[in-house]
Design brief:
The protein is mostly helical. It is 77% helix and 0% strand. Keywords: Membrane, Transmembrane, Transmembrane helix.
Length: 400
């Protein structure tokens, strides 16, 4: 089909009986959509509650910078090991079961992190926290794809926006409690309780779907799923680069002072949230192909501004353009993973999530080595060229 808008979840497909029944909102699907929003918000909230606690936890166990860096790798290691398993379990038992089990298991881990007396126990707790947290991440995206399919309209961008809103809220709430003098363990307990309340409310509305008994426990990504995983990895890599290296690029180019270098990432993050809040409506009107093409070009233009802008306002515009450009790519890739028929959707989404998380973990380190060999500006220029793989592959993604 040449009209890419017809490939969006808003299109009517006679072969899909669910899509044909969407003349009136289904109350169950409406409840499920709100429940999924609550899960995304709660997951972003508890994830960011951890960040303000890091200095207190580091001091408690007496770890130096290198040791604590290894401890943080435990968080990522637990996540990477658990995500494929979460996809397999969601395929067999349903996403709701995984969200319930992993979500309620991750909640007590947050205050436990503040109580661990030594490095080894903290490493184990971080691995479990990462495993439970990212199992919920995989399962909630699987559930979101199913809700989007039944609703026959785009919802994925708005869900990812709520994750970001939850992240801002969690970090802000935790910082305020710590500034007010609450003990880290008490502040973590209150933050975990808030996330638990949202999860418990959400569980009542989540769909009770189950996978087939013949669903494999594991499947290597193949075909178009490999393409979706690679493209998601590129998008996540841009996010990681902006987080870890964007401020340093602004300092290197003398566009922002050291004290205000974080302003660039704030602009980038705000642009991403704004774009995702309106992303579902844009995708419904313009189609996924247009959003991927336009978003890619915006992101490339934004990075070009960061590299070449002679003064600060233009550089900040570059941060904003990059954020607007990449914001809705990953939601589109998750939606496409739910439509493909090469492998079970739950396993495909787990593959994409794992690849994306690996990109966030390892990508900035790779960029650091590249910057050491060349320069940050050259490295960001190469990143912009890699981004062009997304518009080159847009038709294959939107034809699913």
């Amino acid at each position: 089909m040449n009209d890419t808008a017809q490939r969006s979840p808003t299109s009517s497909r006679s072969s899909d009986p669910v899509s044909a029944e969407t003349t009136a909102p289904d109350p169950q699907i409406t409840r499920a959509a709100w429940a999924t929003r609550a899960v995304f918000f709660a997951t972003g909230f508890i994830t960011s509650c951890w960040a303000p606690l890091i200095p207190f936890v580091k001091t408690r166990v007496g770890a130096d910078e290198s040791t604590f860096g290894l401890l943080l790798l435990c968080l990522g290691g637990g996540a990477l090991l658990a995500m494929p398993l979460a996809g397999a379990l969601a395929a067999k038992l349903g996403a709701r079961a995984v969200i319930a089990a992993a979500g309620l298991a991750m909640v007590p881990m947050l205050p436990l992190l503040t109580l661990m007396p030594g490095v080894l126990l903290l490493g184990l707790a971080l691995a479990l926290f990462g495993a439970f947290l990212n199992s919920v991440d995989v399962a909630m995206n699987i559930h979101a794809v199913e809700v989007e399919r039944r609703a026959a309209r785009p919802i994925m961008s708005g869900l990812h926006a709520l994750y970001s809103v939850g992240s801002f809220s969690g970090a802000g709430a935790m910082a305020l409690m710590l500034l007010a003098g609450l003990a880290p363990s008490l502040a973590a307990t209150l933050g975990a309780a808030a996330a638990a309340a949202a999860l418990l409310l959400a569980l009542r509305g989540l769909l009770r779907t189950r996978g087939g008994t013949d669903t494999p426990a594991f499947a290597w990504p193949r075909g178009v799923v490999l393409l979706l995983a690679a493209l998601s990895g590129i998008s996540f890599l841009v996010e990681g680069a902006m987080l870890d290296w964007g401020a340093l690029l602004a300092i290197e180019r003398q566009l922002l002072p050291v004290e205000g270098a974080g302003l660039g990432y704030m602009v980038f993050a705000a642009a991403m949230v704004t774009a995702r809040l309106i992303g579902d409506r844009v995708i419904a009107r313009a189609g996924q192909m247009s959003v991927l093409l336009g978003g890619s070009l915006l992101a490339v233009a934004g990075i070009a501004l960061l590299i070449a802008a002679p003064w600060t306002p233009l550089a900040l515009a570059g941060y904003a353009l990059t954020g607007f450009g990449v914001a809705n790519m990953v939601p589109i890739f998750f939606s496409a993973a739910g439509r493909q028929r090469v492998m079970p959707p739950a396993l495909a989404i787990a593959s994409i999530s794992t690849t994306g998380y690996a990109g966030v973990l390892m990508g900035p380190a790779v960029l650091g080595f590249a910057a050491e060999a060349t320069s940050l500006a050259t490295t960001f220029g190469a990143l912009a060229l890699v981004l062009l793989l997304i518009p080159a592959s847009a038709r294959a993604v939107t034809r699913l």
